[in-house]
Amino acid sequence: MDLERGILQNSSKGKESWKTVLTLAYQSLGVVYGEISTSPLYVYRNTFSEDIGHSETNEEIYGVLSLVFWTLTLVPLVKYVFVVLKADDNGEGGTFALYSLLCRHAKVGLLPNCQLADEELSEYKKHSCGVTAERSLASSLKSLLERHKVLQRILLVLALLGTCMVIGVGVLKPAISVFSAVSGLELSMSKEHHRYVEVPGACIILIGLFALQRYGTNRVGFLFAPIVCIWLFCISAIGLYNIFYWNPRVYQALSPYYVFQFLRKTRRGGWMALGGILLCITGSEAMFAGLGHFSQLSIKIAFTSLVYPSLVLAYMGQAAYFSRHHDVEQEYHFGFYVSVPEKLRWPVLVIAILAAVVGSQSIITGTFSIIRQCSALSCFPRVKVVHTSSKIHGQVYIPEINWLLMLLCLAVTIGFRDTKLMGNASGLAVVSVMLVTSCLMSLVIVICWHKNVLLAVGFVLFFGSIEALFFSASVIKFFEGAWVPVALAFVFLSVMCVWHYGTLKKYEFDVQNKVSISWLLSLGHSLGFARVRGIGLVQTELVSGIPAIFSHFVTNLPAFHQVLVFLCIKHVPVPHVRPEERFLVGRVGPRYFRVYRCIVRYGYHDVHKDDNEFEKDLVCSIAKFIQAGGGACNSSNDEPEKGGRMTVVGTCSTSHPLLVSERDEVDVDIAGTSEANKVIKPKKRVRFIMPESPKIDTDTREELKELMEAREVGVAYIIGQSYVRAKPGSNMLKKLVINCGYEFLRKNSREPSNVLSAPHASSLEVGMMYQV
């Protein structure tokens, strides 16, 4: 898959044609807006489950409609469409993207191996919306965050908490959407038969939904977009019919006057009912999280032109019907289907079930995306990430998370069997994510956009107050289902914190035990070791110095390769690193040592290449560094980037320092002794040819020749296998976290992608015990 080309195409979203924008807007209906589009299925039912009554004056139904209208207008339309979508991280959205944006504008990130050279990346540049004085409140806030590690940890935990609540929504939203859609069968069968059909039917649909995820967002989006279009047309058409047929004056209820009337009359019951009204904006966060799959303009067009008007008409239509039918409270509990004309109920039921499946798709997609971001930035255990599109970089599928979500979703469906309990749980998770977004967004307004602090305070006070009111109405239902997202968030947050803490401690051990370059220089011209043919790649997380694993290796086996490369593969807090900026190459010691340091930088949404492509790019980058006249020596400087010795080098696709030829080879893997067990695998073999150029001096030509000869012999991967233990004398909590928690996660998570892609026949593992 030509994913790197796809990334470049997708990074230029701002220059897309209108045809492309409209295509993306259409496709976003099936991926982003399915969740919020299905909210009419359960909003009124959950709201009126709080026994607020339905009097002949219609004050309650008008008040609920007014609250739904203004909530839809203020949160998804004003907050997300007009403000939050502008805070994209080079085209990426979501809670963790906001955190990444803050990390680049202020030194608040906790990634251990950051370098000054990373700030020179094209996508690292700070898109400021204004100029701030050095002594302004914004600068003071930035300095305060940079000085205090405690505030940085709080900021990270806040971002992780938002991530955990997104995962919680990924569990709860499919359950309530599908269960609410299937509940329409209650109008077509007896209650005795209905209870035996509702739960099994919802579970079968959910299993099918999660089984579809492996086909990817692109195929699913084009499959689901027509369903959402039909669903929005249905609910808006039925809404218009109900308005004109039952109550044409229902539009008067859009006045905020009815909100105050409703709250004044219902008091505590009205406040409790806010937990049901909150469900009308579930899916708002998906607009922001979906930026990685679509463009900002396409998401705005789809919402303002189709989704928002359709939802308003649907809620108005339901309210118009209920205002003329006061018996629905006892018989059908304000269900969606009772407001649908009887002849249309079966077709609408089928479309609703399909739309509920689509609605669940959007949050599942967002969950995959945000977990991938966390994993890339060392905040979540490594998982398998499958890229399902060769054209659009953000479309991924994570098998382990997919099946885990499915099991949890089935458990919620079977355990609750009630939309009220599911709604209470889903509402708390949704409003928690929105509160986290508001807090991080206020910091972005000040630190990244350089706007007045009063603007940020006004933003967080206005929207934060609305969300805090909804939060208070949701959290009071803790024992009525709202405990589920809290429990899920606690488990996932514990996993994330343990993994991040263990990763940091492991890196600190590497830094403290690294060997100085002066040790290598003291060995003299021959380095005191036998040199064998080929290229040796010593994989390390260090960006300077010599890893302890190498000294441990040569102590037990006093020989290494004629060309030695200390390879560091790291992620930086940007979505993508351009291919021409991928590699940082420098020397370790004098030129005749033939020892190099290569730092390979990936964004948190970048795709790691397979071993053949990676080896080709690596050799090309070193060759280009040599041809450009790389520094003769880094002396004893353990921070080469500070000494100006590291050179930014692109991949083979961006430069050709050596001539490259490819030929097909056949590898035969023999699994047994019989002919039937032979497996034939075609493979591309890359060969480098020295360019004939009079500009290349003798020393450079000799060095390039030696590099090509070593590449022809082969590449060996020297991989460290660490076993982490807490230091003797550590407290019990640290021993529990490191010895039990981190080690369990490490053993049960996947190896880094660079380790998995290394050929087993060319790999050498060196074990070390880490006491942190």
Automatic annotation (TrEMBL):
Task: Domain (K+ potassium transporter integral membrane): give its ranges.
Answer: 24-521
Among the GO molecular function terms of this UniProt record, one is:
potassium ion transmembrane transporter activity
Which stretches are transmembrane?
Answer: 21-41, 61-82, 154-176, 196-213, 220-244, 271-294, 306-324, 344-371, 392-416, 428-447, 454-476, 482-502
Q: Name the UniProt key words of this record, in alphabetical order.
A: Ion transport, Membrane, Potassium, Potassium transport, Transmembrane, Transmembrane helix, Transport
| Gene Ontology cellular component annotations, sorted alphabetically | plasma membrane
Q: Name one Pfam family in it.
A: K_trans_C
What InterPro entries does its record include? Answer: K+_transporter, K_trans_C, K_trans_N
Location within or outside the cell: Cell membrane; Membrane
- List the membrane topology term(s): Multi-pass membrane protein
Q: Where does the record place the K+ potassium transporter C-terminal domain?
A: 534-771
Q: Which family does it belong to?
A: Belongs to the HAK/KUP transporter (TC 2.A.72.3) family.
Protein name per Swiss-Prot or TrEMBL: Potassium transporter
Which species? Answer: Sphenostylis stenocarpa
